Amino acid sequence: MRLHRLDITAFGPFGGAQSVDFDELSVAGLFLLHGPTGAGKTSVLDAVCYALYGSVPGARQTGQGLTLRSDHAAPGTRTEVRLELTVAGRRLEITRQPPWERPKKRGSGSTLDKAQSWLREYDARTGAWKDLSRSHQEIGEEITQLLGMSREQFCQVVLLPQGDFARFLRADAEARGRLLGRLFDTHRFAEVEKRLADRRRATEAQVRDGDTELLADAHRMQQAAGDAMALPDAAPGDPGLADAVMSAAAVARSTAREQLTIAHSRLTSAESAQAAAERTLGDVREVARLQQRFGEARQRAALMEERSDGYRQALARMERARKAEAVAPALELREAADAEHGRAAAAQERTRALLPDTFADAGAAGLASAARRAAEELGGLESARRAEQRLAELVAERAGLDRQERADDDVLREADDWLAGWEATRGGLQARIDSAQEAATRAEQLGVQREPAQRRLGAARLRDQLAGDTDTAAEQVRLAQVDALTLKARWLEVKERRLNGIAAELAAQLTDGAPCAVCGATEHPAPARKDAGHVGREAEERALAAYQQAEERHSEQEQRLGVVREALAAATAEAGDASTEQLASAAEELERLYAQARHAASDLHPAHEELRRAEQEHERRTAVRQEAAVRAASRVGHRDRLDRERGVLEEELTQARGTLDSVAARADQLERQVRRLTDAADAARVAEDTAQRLKDADARLADAAFRAGFDTPQAAAQALLDDAAHRDLQRRLDDWQSQEAAVRAVLAEPDTAAAAQQPPADLAAAERAAALAAQRVRDAASARDAAARRCADLDRLSARATVSVRRLAPLREEYDRVARLASLTAGTSADNERKMRLESYVLAARLEQVAAAATVRLLRMSSGRYTLVHSDDRAGRGRSGLGLHVVDAWTGRERDTATLSGGETFFASLALALGLADVVTDEAGGVRLDTLFIDEGFGSLDDQTLDEVLDVLDSLRERDRSVGIVSHVADLRRRIHAQLEVVKGRAGSTLKVRSAAQRSARQG
Q1: What single-letter DSSP state applies at residue 940?
Q2: Is residue 934 predicted with pLDDT exceeding 60?
Q3: How far is CA 520 from CA 77, 479, 510, 905, 986, in A?
Q4: Using CA atoms, how far apart are residues 181 and 292, in angstroms rounded to an integer?
Q5: For residue 340, what are the contacts with CB-CB under 8 A and spacing of at least 6?
Q6: Rounded to an integer, what distance in angstroms lies between the CA atom of residue 584 and that of residue 700?
Q7: Strand 978-983 and strand 990-994: pairing?
Q8: SS3 of 524, please?
Q9: C-alpha to C-alpha distance for 666 and 613, rounded to whole angstroms
Q10: Cβ neighbours for 486, distance < 8 A, ≥ 6 positions apart
Q11: pLDDT by residue (tens digit) across 986-997?
C-alpha cells in the first residue's frame, strides 16, 4: 500500500482546504511530520484512517462523525477527506464526507445532510477515473479485503504508536495476549477452547444422565426381585457402575428362575387334587339330581290322577265341536242370505219414498218404462241448452265491450294529461344531471389535493414538536460538554500533579541491588519521597474514567441531537414555510369543499336513473294511447253482430223453457226424475232376488243339521266353538297328554329308579371339598404367575440395561477423549506441562515470529547489544507462554524488558513495532505496506542511538518504503530534509510541505 495524495477540507483543526503530496515527500524515503502541540499532527493520520475505514482511531471517533468537522470552518464549507493510494496494484481514490449540519437554504435554522462516500479507480488505458461505488458498506468491505487488515490492525501496523508498544514491552502476559489477539485475530482458537469445554460439559451431562437412567433401571429390578438383588454402592459417572449393575441383575434373574420352577411344580400337584375333587362332586350331584327327579315325577302322577274327570269332560266337548263343524258352512250361508235380503228391502223402501204417489203400486217393469220416457224428453232439450249458454256468452261479451270502452277512455285521458308536461319534466332532469356531473369533476380535483395537504399538515405538526425537542437536546449537549470540559480539566490537573510527584512513585519501587528503571543504577542514595498532596495512579485513573464517562454522555447527547435535527429537517422540507395554523385552515377548507362536492355529485346516478325511467314512461304512454284508439275502432262492428245474434236466440228459448225460468231448470227437473225412477226399479229387482236366496239357504241348513246328528239347526249352532275357544281346549288336552307321557317316562328310567333306591346324597360336603381344592389351585397359580412376572420383568429390565450400557460405551469413550482435549487446550491437563491455553500457544508462536523480526532491527539500533527473545516460563503460579525478554550481549544475561531505560525502551518498541508490521503484513496475505508512520519517542535517544535508529529506518527504503516520523525533536528537522509541517493559527491549522529537493535548493 502506497499513499499518493491526501486532500483535507474543514477536518479537525484544519478550517480550510489542505493538500499533502506523499509522492513528493516519499522521494527521500524518510520524511518528518512536525508542529507545535495541538497543531494537528495526529489529525493528518486520523484523516488517512477516516478515508480508508470511515472512522478515526480510538476515543476520537464520537458523535457519528459530527465532531470531525473543524470549528474554524466557514458555515457553508462541507467537511471532506480525499485520499489517493495504490493497493494490490490498483490505484484508487476514496472520498468521504461525514454528516454535516448546514444552514438552511431558505429560512433560518440548520438541517442535517447525511454522510457521503465515493470510490473511484484509475484506468491506465483510458487515462480517466472510473466510479466503482457510493455505498459506505461496499467501500468498507472492498478496502478491508484489499488491505487484509481491520482498522485496529491498520492503526497498529501502519500508524505505529510507540507509546502502545512501550506499554507492550512492560505489560504482563494477559495484556500482551489481548493486543496480539486483536492483531492476529486468534479469537477462533479461543472459540475452539470454548467449544471443547462446552462439548465436555455436554458429554459429561449425557454420561451422567445415562448412568442415572441405568441406576433407575437397577432400582426397578430390585423392586421386581425383592430381596434377591442388592444394589451396587456407586454414583452416576463412576467407572464401574455398569458392570456392578449387570452382575447384580444376572444373580437376580437366576434366583427368580429357580423360584418359578418350584411354583410350577406346586401348581401341577394342586391341579391334580382339584380334578379328583371335581369328579367326586360331579358324581354326588348326578345322584342328587336323579333322586330329586324321581320324587318330582311321583308327585305329578298323583296330582294328575286327582284331575282325570275334568280331562274326560273336555275330551267329550271337543268331539261335539268336531261334529258341529260340518254344519258351519250352511249356517254361515243362511246368515249371509238373511243380511243381504234385509239390505235390499231397506234400499227399496228408500227409493220408493222419493217417487210420486202414482208409482206406489208399480213393479220393477213399470218403473223402468217410466224412466225411459223421461230420458227421451231430456234428450230433446240439449239443443235449447246450448242456445241458452250461447246467449249468456253474448251478454257477457257485450258487457265486456262496454267495460273496455270505458277503460280506453280513461287511458286516453290520463295519457294526454301526462304527455302534455313531458318537455318540462325532461328539461328539469337534464339540468340535474349536468349540475351533478360538474360537482363530480370538482370533487375529483379536490380529492387529489387532500392527501398532500394532510401530509404537509402532519409534517408541520411534527416540525413544531421537533423544534422544541431540538432546543432541549441542544441545551443537553451544551450541559454535557460543559461537564466533560470540567472533568477533563480535573483529570489534567490530577495527571499534572501525579507527573510532578512521579519520581517519588518510581522511588517506592526501588530495591537495593536492583537496577533503576530510569537510569539503570543499582545504588539509590537519595530516593525521592512522597509529599502530603501526592496523587497516585488510582486517583488519576478515577479522574480519567469520570472524564471518559462524561465524554461518552456528551457523545450520546450529540447523537440524539443529530437524530432530532435530521428528523426536523425532513419534516421542514415536507411542510414548507407555511405555519401549522395556515395549513390546518387550508386543509379544513379543502375538506369542506370536498364534502360539498361529493354530496352534490351523489345525485348524478339517481338523476340518470330518473331520466331513464321518465323516457320509458313516455314511450309506454304513447304506445298505450295508440292501442286504445285501434281498439275503439274495432269495437263498433263487433257490437252490431252481437245484438243481431242475441235476438234470434231469445225467440228460440222462449218456446223451450215452458213454465220454468230457464232450459237448464227444466233439464235438471227431468234428470232428477229419470235418476229416481231408475234407482227404484233396480231396488225392486234386488229385493225379489234376495228373498228367493234366503228361502233356499233355510232348506240347506235343516238338511245339514240332520245329517250331523243334531235335532235342530239351533243345537248345531250351540255346539260350535270359535277359534279362541277351540285353541284353548285343544291346548289343555295336549298339555294333559304330554305331562302324563313325561311322568311315565321318568318313572320308567333305570338310572333314576336305581338312584331312588340309594341313601340321600351329601352335596354340601362334596362342594366344600371341591371349593377347597380350587382355592389351593388359585393360590398356586398366583404364586406361579408372580414368579413368571418377576422373571419377565427382570429379563425386560436387564435387556433395557444392556442396551443402555452398550449405548453409553461410545458416549463414555467420547467423553474421555473430549475431556482430555478440553483439559489440554485449557492448560489444566497434566500432559500440558507449561499450563498454556491453545490461544496462548498460537500467540506464543506469533510472538516468537515478532521477536525474531524485531531483533534484526534491534541489533542495529543497539549496536549489537540487545536481542528480543520469547519466553514461555511460568510466572509464579500463573500460566506461561507470552513472556518477552531482552538478552544483553554485554552481560550475557537475559532480563525482562521492563528493566530497559527510557531510550532503550523507545528503540526496542520501535524495533518491535516494525517487526510486528512485517509479521502482520505476511499474516494479511503479503500486502506491501510502502508507507508507514512512527509517532514520537525520539527525544529519549542520544545522538549516537538516534543515528543508528535513523539508519535502520532509512534502510526501509531498500524495500521501496517511505517512513513518516511524527516528532517534536528539533534535531530531527536538521537530519530529515523532507518535512510536512503543521502550522497552528487562530483561524485553524495549515500544512506546509518541504521536500528534500526544495531544502537542497535553499541550502545551495
Answers
A1: G
A2: yes
A3: 54, 49, 11, 12, 44
A4: 111
A5: 690, 693, 694
A6: 125
A7: antiparallel
A8: coil
A9: 59
A10: 550
A11: 888 998 888 755
Q: Under a CB-based contact definition with an 8 Å cutoff, are residues 753 and 297 in contact?
A: no
Residue whose cell numbers read 432546543: 471
What secondary structure does DSSP assign to 29-94, as a single string?
SEEEEE-STTSSHHHHHHHHHHHHHSS-SGGG--GGGGGGB-TTS-TTPPPEEEEEEEETTEEEEE
Q: What's the pLDDT score for residue 560?
A: 86
Q: What is the per-residue pLDDT across 276-313, written as a single tens digit (0 to 9) for each? A: 888 887 877 777 777 777 777 777 777 777 777 777 77
Measuring CA to CA, which residue among 865, 861, 841, 866 is closest to residue 851? 866
In sequence order, the β-bridge partners of residue 997 are none
Asked if 148 and 924 touch (Cβ cutoff 8 Å), the reply is yes
DSSP 487-519: HHHHHHHHHHHHHHTHHHHHHTT--TTSPPTTT
80 pLDDT higher than 90:
yes
815 exposed, middle or buried (CB, 10 Å; 0-12, 13-18, 19+)?
buried
How far apart, in whole angstroms, are the C-alpha atoms of residue 929 and residue 855?
Answer: 20
Higher pLDDT, 508 or 626: 626
State the DSSP string of 621-684: HHHHHHHHHHHHHHHHHHHHHHHHHHHHHHHHHHHHHTTSS-HHHHHHHHHHHHHHHHHHHHHH
In this prediction, residues 465-491 reach a mean pLDDT of 86
pLDDT at 181 > cutoff 60:
yes
Mean pLDDT value across residues 710-734: 75
pLDDT above 60: residue 436:
yes
Q: Tell me the three cell numbers of residue 882.
A: 507470552
Rg, Å, the chain Cα set: 67
Our measurement of the distance from residue 790's CA atom to the centroid of its chain's CA atoms, rounded to an integer in Å, reads 50
CA separation, residue 822 to residues 706, 874, 879, 928 (Å): 132, 20, 16, 39
420-441 burial: b if 16+ Cβ within 10 Å, else e: eeeeebeeebeebbeebbebbe
Q: Strand runs (DSSP E) across 50-207, as ranges?
A: 80-87, 90-97, 100-103, 110-113, 116-123, 128-133, 159-161
Residue 905 and residue 934 in contact, taking contact as beta carbons nearer than 8 Å: no
What letter does residue 878 receive in the DSSP assignment?
S
pLDDT attached to residue 946: 63
DSSP state of 230: -
What pLDDT was estimated at residue 118?
92
Counting beta carbons within 10 angstroms of the beta carbon of residue 726, is it exposed (0 to 12), middle (13 to 18) or buried (19 or more)?
middle
What whole-number distance in Å separates Cα of residue 601 and Cα of residue 434?
A: 10
DSSP label at 244?
H
Rounded Cα gap, residues 134 and 491, in angstroms: 42
**What is the Cα–Cα distance from 42 to 28, expressed in whole angstroms?**
22
Determine the distance from the C-alpha atom of residue 723 to the mean position of all C-alpha atoms in its chain, rounded to a whole number.
83
Q: Is 612 exposed, middle or buried (0-12, 13-18, 19+ CB in 10 A)?
A: exposed
DSSP for 792-857, please give it.
HHHHHHHHHHHHHHHHHHHHHHHHHHHHHHHHHHHT-STT-TT---HHHHHHHHHHHHHHHHHHHH
Cβ partners under 8 Å of residue 662, min gap 6: 388, 653
What would the grid cell of residue 550 be? 462524561
SS3 label, residue 894: strand
Which cell is 748 given?
320308567
Residue 79: which pLDDT band, with cuts at 50, 70 and 90? very high
Best CA proximity match to 298, nearest among 928, 883, 744, 603: 744
> What's the pLDDT score for residue 948?
63
Mean pLDDT score, 4-33 = 88
pTM: 0.41
pLDDT at 1004: 47
